[in-house]
């Protein structure tokens, strides 16, 4: 856990004092990612660098797991905190292996242990140790360098990590890939992370909590969904953007928004049974599932009413389905491109799990506004 | 009479000892002044002034001073002169190279918990090596010429051939000496360039691929 207590930094410059951090109070709970967000010069980097004492606070205190870091020797402190900088900062004279082992070597780890750890970490970010261990940073692509930068910070397995725009130096496509990769890693390693970003989309994606700064002040500190649903003032609302409600689509999974245990029919059911089920639930159509519960097709109420025969003879194919672990952004996109107002939701094996409607989605997005 | 070979070895020895000492002093000074802009300006200014003093004048100044310890002429003043002349290229290149190490690397080194000495040894000096070595090359090539003049104060070396050639109006000795000094300078330059490449960390010279 990281706790900032009235943390303040004033830089004295020839042009006058600059308050880069103004009585910041916040807490990053154990195992969570906190994204510091805000316009350029608002004090994100300064706030973060006070945690590992690259910048000395003017006043206030910082606690890591209850220990006051301002009373810890900075060298010892920094070796216990993973640090990733935007410019990556791999040492060009050292191999990938030596770079990754930098902190373990400073800590005097056994060489065998640190070297095998380096190989293990490379595999974690999908880089083949046999190929990359002995390479130099100049022999890597930008994305590969960035990955090595991240695992260098992880090498000594620090409980706390500071990451200053760690994925800033790569193109948007690769950035998404690395972000996903990092989130997957984080779900296992559960570090307590302070993460600087100036990109609201990155923040929404990565953060358990977002702290938005403006001119040295912490304006709002909330979960991404709360922040997007309830911006505290106009500054925050402007900063997160006019499409903030749409951004929330990314935060909600299909599973959370769908209607569960939906009615269903099989190929052998008669059309009149299907009509009865639809009328019972007030639905305009119903999904036909196969013998193992896979979504196979649909029957429309208007087509089935008054008809004789079995479902298997009259069903129509599903235009598309959506998987329950996808986010609502994908679901809405699929709905729009198929020109449907609802979609069947399936698990990874194609089993029919529920359905999702446009109304249901707008209802969910609207819910927090009505709560107020 | 001394053979050219002996004189060449003598010449090399004077320059090597003096530049060796200059590296031992100039590199630490160059590193130290990166910490303080005013000190850097002052030191570089003094080193620049020293290098503008003609060698004959420098020897002249040193004769009375070093006579106090009985070393007014010969080997010692030659070495001291070269040591002084070498300071500017070595200090300046060291200073420039260390001061220009990418701030991101310095920050990364600091951020992962390296002490200032570890930073120097593991990051800053390795990165500065090519530029420092370029300074050493300049110092050596320049001072092979200065060492030739030191023959006038009895330091020995290839300059003896030239001075004897002049005093005895013997063009053969004169030309042989002048040629030998030039060849030595060119050879030293090649050798040091090779050494510079050898000492440059491999990671700095590899190509993207
Ligand atoms: N060493 C320093 N000396 C003087 N002023 C500084 C120093 N470091 C930062 N500042 C000032 O403090 C303010 C906050 O800087 P900081 O680097 O924390 O911003 P930031 O939020 O990280 O911005 P960016 O998104 O551009 O990285 C800025 O006005 C900056 O000019
Ligand atoms: Mg910054």
Automatic annotation (TrEMBL), chain A:
Family under the similarity heading: Belongs to the ABC transporter superfamily.
Task: State its location(s).
Answer: Cell inner membrane
Q: Which PANTHER family match?
A: OSMOPROTECTANT IMPORT ATP-BINDING PROTEIN OSMV
Q: Name one GO molecular function term.
A: ATP binding
Q: Which UniProt keywords apply?
A: ATP-binding, CBS domain, Cell inner membrane, Cell membrane, Membrane, Nucleotide-binding, Repeat, Transport
The record describes its quaternary structure and partners as:
The complex is probably composed of two ATP-binding proteins, two transmembrane proteins and a solute-binding protein.
Q: What class of enzyme is it?
A: translocase
Listed NCBIfam families? proV
How would you describe this protein's topology in the membrane? Peripheral membrane protein
Kindly give the InterPro entries that the UniProt entry links to this protein: AAA+_ATPase (IPR003593), ABC_transporter-like_ATP-bd (IPR003439), ABC_transporter-like_CS (IPR017871), CBS_dom (IPR000644), CBS_dom_sf (IPR046342), Gly-betaine_transp_ATP-bd (IPR005892), P-loop_NTPase (IPR027417)
Record carries keyword ATP-binding = yes
Q: What is its EC number?
A: 7.6.2.9
Ranges of residues in domain CBS: 258-316
Primary subcellular site in the record, as a coarse category: membrane
Q: Which residues form the ABC transporter domain?
A: 2-240
Q: What is the protein name stated in its UniProt record? A: Quaternary amine transport ATP-binding protein
Per its record, the protein catalyses: a quaternary ammonium(out) + ATP + H2O = a quaternary ammonium(in) + ADP + phosphate + H(+)
From TrEMBL, chain B:
* Key word Oxidoreductase present: no
Q: Where is the ABC transmembrane type-1 domain?
A: 8-192
Listed InterPro entries: ABC_transp_perm/SBD, MetI-like, MetI-like_sf
| Transmembrane feature ranges | 12-31, 43-66, 72-91, 127-154, 174-195
Localisation: Cell membrane
Q: Which SUPFAM superfamilies match?
A: MetI-like
Principal place of residence: membrane
Q: How does it sit in the membrane?
A: Multi-pass membrane protein
Could you tell me the keywords of this UniProt record?
Membrane, Transmembrane, Transmembrane helix, Transport
Family membership:
Belongs to the binding-protein-dependent transport system permease family.
Protein name per the record: ABC transporter permease
Organism of provenance: Roseibium sediminicola
